[in-house]
Amino acid sequence: MIEQMTLNLVARARNPRRPLTPSSEFRDPAFMENKSAPVHRWVPWIAGFSAQFVEDVFHEYLPVKSSHPSLVLDPFAGVGTTLVQAMLHGYHSVGFEINPYAALVARTKLTAASLDLKALDALIQQVEKVRAKGNGEPISERHRPPGFRSRIPFFSPKVEPQVLAVLEILHTISQRDLTDVAKIAFGAVMVQVSNYTYEPSLGSRPGAGKPLIENADVPAILAAKLRQIREDVVWLREHLAGTPSGLRREIHCEDFLSPDTQVKNGAVDLVLTSPPYMNNYHYVRNTRPQLFWLSLVTASEELRRLEHRNFGKYWQTVRDADPIPLHFDHSALVRTLKNLRCTRAALGAYGGPGWANYVASYFNDCDRFVAMLRGLLRRQGAAIVVIGNSIIQGIHIPTDRILGELAEAHGLRLEKIVELRAKRVGASITASSVRRGNRNGTRLYESAVVLRKQ
Q1: Residue 339, Cα to own-chain centre: how many angstroms?
Q2: How far apart are CA 304 and CA 310, in angstroms?
Q3: Per residue in 358-416, pLDDT tens?
Q4: C-alpha to C-alpha distance for 156 and 158, rounded to whole angstroms
Q5: What ranges do the domains of the chain cover?
Q6: How many CB atoms lie within 10 A of CB 446?
Q7: H/E/C letters for each residue in the chain?
Q8: Do residues 214 and 206 lie in contact, with contact meaning Cβ atoms separated by under 8 Å?
Q9: Confidence at residue 425, expressed as pLDDT on a 0 to 100 scale
Q10: Which in 68, 160, 206, 285 has the greatest CB count within 10 A?
Q11: In this structure, what is the dihedral angle of CA atoms 349, 353, 354, 360, given to the nearest 10 degrees?
Q12: Tens-place pLDDT, residues 51-65
């Protein structure tokens, strides 16, 4: 059964005249809230925000009445929370996402209403018949990705044959939309049956103090996920019945900061997004198993190319470079970078100098990002950017405030910064109140930076 909270969200999407939530009282943006929401619950994701947070933003920053559907843009779309909610509202929606797995998930959600349910039922029956030993026929190993490596066996000896048998079925599907559904369903459960876990970054189960998964009923687990998707497709069709036809529902597996964004200047009514935070989470590496086992990448070189294209880069990709300067004027940030380069300088790339390159790269991308928003937004259009502060080598970086200042330098108006929640954790956070060791009293938080084009 779909929970009542989810039904209430949909009721608001179909009745935009309901009172708005005050801007200072956005509901919890954590993606965990999507675990029970139809369509959003298909794939677990450690980043992004909740459908209920998107609802609050839509109701406050998009017009109640309009002769033309609004255009919603998410430059860092992840698995498509913003895009799905825009679809339910009857808005045009365009998203960009460089991670091929996340982009696949978002695209599948946007096209799922047209899925052939009879074909999906047949697939579920096929999967349910799979057994690790089958009828005695040898299991093909051709779908084991040759370029995939892990510190310990990713799947245990009793699990991997089941995985390979399931993948054999997935590779026989002729319809692309059904293939995509099968892939994201497998991607959603594969870590669950593996010897790895999200804590929240991907790591081995023994490293997290958990036992290995010696055996699991992979076909049953996958079939259950496919049945959940089927239930939500029926739900989705019902709730799209009253929305306009011919709406844009696009996800581009591309870098938003590339020269051609495929969106016209002055065309966007609302930007709602959450770029990668400056806490060095490895968004690409966290999906490395899905990328390889779903044949979305075939070699480590492809992962490295994605990391170099990632917004803000990764510390590992810039730490050994010559000192990276800021491409804009910001005296306070220049002082911060100078202090950072002097912190643990003897460690070179592994101390303050390496991290200073990371911070400079991150804000150079932020500057390019807000400059693009200035061009794409229509007059009085709004951009809500969810972002977190960070603590690098013990130095507090108020990312939200700096982003707002960069936006103002490009001619956008900073309406407000709304704190959404406190005490996040991140891999690059040191000497803070949320990590062991020295504590400097600085707390971590997540904010919504609200910008407006005048």
Answers
A1: 32
A2: 10
A3: 999 999 999 999 999 999 999 999 999 999 999 888 899 999 999 999 999 999 999 99
A4: 6
A5: 115-235, 318-454
A6: 22
A7: CCCHHHHHHHHHHHCCCCCCCCHHHCCCCEHHHHHHCCCHHHCCCCCCECHHHHHHHHHHHCCCCCCCCCEEEECCCCCCHHHHHHHHHCCEEEEECCCHHHHHHHHHHHHHHHCCHHHHHHHHHHHHHCCCCCCCCCCCCCCCCCCCCCCCCCCCCCCHHHHHHHHHHHCCCCCHHHHHHHHHHHHHHCCCCCCEEECCCEEECHHHCCCCCCCCCHHHHHHHHHHHHHHHHHHHHHHHCCCCCCCCEEEECCCCCCCCCCCCCCCEEEEEECCCCCCCCCHHHHCHHHHHHCCCCCCHHHHHHHHHHCCCCCHHHHCCCCCCCCCCCCHHHHHHHHHHHHCCHHHHHHCHHHHHHHHHHHHHHHHHHHHHHHHHEEEEEEEEEEEECEEECCEEECHHHHHHHHHHHCCEEEEEEEEEEECCCCCCECCCCCCCCCCCCCCCEEEEEEEEEC
A8: no
A9: 55
A10: 160
A11: -160
A12: 999 999 999 999 766
User: How many residues comprise the chain?
Assistant: 454
137 Cβ partners below 8 Å, 6+ apart? Answer: none
| Confidence band, pLDDT 50/70/90 cuts, at residue 239 | very high
- pLDDT tens for 407-451 read 999 999 999 999 998 865 544 445 544 444 455 567 888 999 999
At residue 18, the pLDDT reads 32
Q: At 29, list the tokens.
A: 């943006």
Q: What are the two backbone dihedrals, phi and then psi, of residue 250, each rounded to the nearest 5 degrees? A: -125, 140
CB of 194 closer than 8 Å to CB of 289:
yes
Which pair of tokens denotes residue 228? 């959940």
What the block records as the tokens of 316 is 């590992």
